[in-house]
């Protein structure tokens, strides 16, 4: 089955170039040329990934990204001429999976697209048919079916909320979650800026899974932005 990409880019030349190349790589590509059209396309069809320009008419890329993140964890790859660190942090902080600066090569873009889709659709496998929902992250073994966690073969007892937080990060390994996104997803409620609940649960989770909770490696803090899974 062809993987489907929603390409949101207002520049006709760039849109055509990216669309034609990705189609030649075997992807099904739907184009949108402004933020409002992109919202309509997303509501009308299902996609495996969104390629998103930031500078869009009618609804800008960041606002569109926030709208999508309220309803979906689909991989989103930002492509923008705004390549400053602040812009990258802003996009990743609002939930983008990756960021590529214009101008970019089609080879690099294709590689990043394939990697983002692969991360979203494939868990680390143990090879055991009964453990296809097991994700391995360094010393952690997270069983999504039995809702259990082991570290170096020893069981780690987590509360339901602690497991949900860990599950969110290990199933979205490249994504940055703001505290608002974390709260909305795990607590399924609106976030009003009270950080205490998140801070307490994060501290307790780190005390259980980290070798050094004061220097966490599994769930990293991006100051002023949010959290993401560490890389090993």
TrEMBL record:
PANTHER family: REGULATOR OF RPOS, STAGE 0 SPORULATION PROTEIN A HOMOLOG
Keywords assigned: DNA-binding, Phosphoprotein, Transcription, Transcription regulation, Two-component regulatory system
Residue ranges annotated for the OmpR/PhoB-type domain, each copy included: 132-231
4-aspartylphosphate: modified positions: 53
Entry keyword Phosphoprotein: yes
InterPro entries per the UniProt record, alphabetical: CheY-like_superfamily, OmpR/PhoB-type_DNA-bd, Sig_transdc_resp-reg_receiver, WalR-like, WH-like_DNA-bd_sf
Pfam family, one: Trans_reg_C
Biological process according to GO: regulation of DNA-templated transcription
Gene3D superfamilies: 3.40.50.2300, 6.10.250.690, Winged helix-like DNA-binding domain superfamily/Winged helix DNA-binding domain
Domain Response regulatory residue range list: 4-117
Protein name in the entry: DNA-binding response regulator, OmpR family, contains REC and winged-helix (WHTH) domain
Main location: cytoplasm
Superkingdom in the source lineage: Bacteria
């Amino acid at each position: 089955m062809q993987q489907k990409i929603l390409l949101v880019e207002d520049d006709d030349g760039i849109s055509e170039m990216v669309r034609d190349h990705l189609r030649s790589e075997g992807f099904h590509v739907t184009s949108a040329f402004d933020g409002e059209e992109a919202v309509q396309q997303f509501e009308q069809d299902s996609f495996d990934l969104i390629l998103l320009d930031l500078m869009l008419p009618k609804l800008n890329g960041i606002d569109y990204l926030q709208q999508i993140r309220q309803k979906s964890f689909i991989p989103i790859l930002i492509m923008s001429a705004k390549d400053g660190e602040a812009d990258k942090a802003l996009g990743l902080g609002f939930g983008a999976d990756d960021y590529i600066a214009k101008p970019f090569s089609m080879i690099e873009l294709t590689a990043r697209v394939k990697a983002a889709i692969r991360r979203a659709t494939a868990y680390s496998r143990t090879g055991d048919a009964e453990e296809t929902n097991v994700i391995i992250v360094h010393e952690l073994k997270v069983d999504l079916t039995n809702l259990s966690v082991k570290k170096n073969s020893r069981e780690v007892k987590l509360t339901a909320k602690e497991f949900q937080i860990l599950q969110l990060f290990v199933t979205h390994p490249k994504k940055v979650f703001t505290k608002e996104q974390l709260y909305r997803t795990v607590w399924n409620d609106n976030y009003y800026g009270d950080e205490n609940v998140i801070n307490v649960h994060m501290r307790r989770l780190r005390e259980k899974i980290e070798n050094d909770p004061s220097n966490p490696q599994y769930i990293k803090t991006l100051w002023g932005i949010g959290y993401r899974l560490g890389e090993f």
